[in-house]
Amino acid sequence: MSGNIAILGYGLSAIGPGIGIGLIFAAFINGVARQPEARGVLQGIAILGFALAEALAIFGLVLAFVFK
Amino acid sequence: MSVNLLGAVDLAAAGGDGGGFHSPEPAEFYQPLIGHGDWAFTRPMLLLLISVVILAWWLVATTRKAAVVPGKGQWVTEGFYNFVRNDVARDIIGSRDFLRFVPLLFALFTTILLNNLFGVIPPFQFATFGRIAFPIALTLIVFIWYHAVGIRTKGGWNYLKSMIPSGLPKPIYVLIIPLELLTYFVTRPLTLALRLFGNMFAGHMLLLLFITGGEYMLIHGGPVLKVAGVGSFVMGFVLTAFEALVEVLQAYIFTLLAATYIAGSLADEH
């Protein structure tokens, strides 16, 4: 079986951020469901958390290409 | 790995690049225009110069005759400026001394936004921050800035002391001090640069992959692959829209984090 182990590494590294982003937006939806007026405040925090968690997945993707 | 789909063409034919599909590679991001080698004048450099000219012309032109009732251009510029000034600078740095940093944050935001958007605008179509040197340059500016702010407001030794929380049992300090120093001097600038670079690089790579792959499958594929080629183009379209969103988001995140680091340097408590 031939292929590229770097891509395998990327796949493994994407598990964590996937779960993390899911948790962040689950908390966001819960917060807005309990108190719809807080949507504006929570949206900024949700977007910030999303970008920070996604950064790790992006590192994995970039390094998978770099270390091919 | 070769893929056989009901008599379609082998995509990764015989060792990758022979007569088959040539997948996009990181080396393709180096596109010299004048000269070759380390000191070439490359395409991202040209795009950065163009973006500076466009930004300077736009900002001067829309604020030249600043009226109390704004015209369209002035309204757009004021929208961006108010966004950076209020939502980013004032909310994060605090209303006391945020005005000093608004020019830096506004410059960062507009530069990153325009250069990122070059990734999806047809004549340019290359995100200049997809080459690691450009985010490194911006990160250096932010890095020097927030350390300089901390040292100037608190004095050198106090600034270093303020990085470490007080009132902890002594043995934990052995662990905490290297950790905090690592965070302040290594992790923050590294992740700041890599986040911007990674997002732009990955986005551009995805677009390249879907569009060139779709084109290859449409033209050289069997009947089933032709359908997949159309699907690939549709994905390319969707990803362009997604890429535009990510680009705006990354500009905002970079500015937000720069403001957060500056606020952390200014803060009195830890």
Structure, briefly:
Chain A is mainly α. Chain A has helices at 5-13, 15-34, 39-66. Chain B has 270 residues and is mainly α.
Give your account of this protein's structure.
The complex is a heterodimer of chains A (68) and B (270). Chain A is mainly α and 68 residues long. Chain A has one domain: Up-down Bundle (F1FO ATP Synthase). Chain A has helices at residues 5-13, 15-34, 39-66. In chain A, helix 1 packs antiparallel against helix 3 (39-66) and helix 2 packs antiparallel against helix 3. The longest helix of chain A is centred in the C-terminal third of the chain and has 28 residues, at 39-66. With 270 residues, chain B is mainly alpha-helical. Chain B has one domain. Chain B has seven helices and two strands. A two-stranded antiparallel sheet of chain B has the order 1-2. The longest helix of chain B is centred in the last third of the chain and has 51 residues, at 170-220. Chain B is globular and about 70 Å long. The model of chain B is unreliable at 1-18 (pLDDT under 50). Classes of the chains: A mainly alpha (68), B mainly alpha (270). Chain A binds chain B through residues 1-3, 44, 47-48, 51-52, 54-55, 58-59, 61-62, 65-66, 68, and chain B through 1, 25-26, 87, 191, 194-195, 197-199, 201-202, 205, 249-250, 252-253, 256.
Write the layout of secondary structure elements.
The complex is a heterodimer of chains A (68) and B (270).
Chain A: H1 5-13, H2 15-34, H3 39-66
Chain B: E1 32-34, E2 41-42, H1 43-63, H2 72-93, H3 102-117, H4 133-154, H5 156-162, H6 170-220, H7 223-266
Antiparallel strand pairs in B: 1-2
Shape verdict of chain A: elongated
Q: State the domain count of chain B.
A: 1
Number of strands of chain B: 2
Number of helical segments with 4 or more residues of chain B: 7
Roughly what fraction of the amino acids of chain B lie in strands?
under 5%
Per the principal axes of the C-alpha atoms, what is the gross shape of chain B?
globular
**What is the CATH third-level topology name of chain A?**
F1FO ATP Synthase
Could you give a short account of the major beta sheet of chain B? 2 strands, antiparallel
First CA to last CA of chain B: what distance? Answer: 53 Å
Provide the CATH superfamily of chain A: F1F0 ATP synthase subunit C
Tell me the distance between the termini of chain A: 17 Å
Strand order of the largest sheet of chain B: 1-2
Rg of chain A over CA atoms, rounded to whole Å, is: 16 Å
Provide mean pLDDT of chain B, rounded. Answer: 82
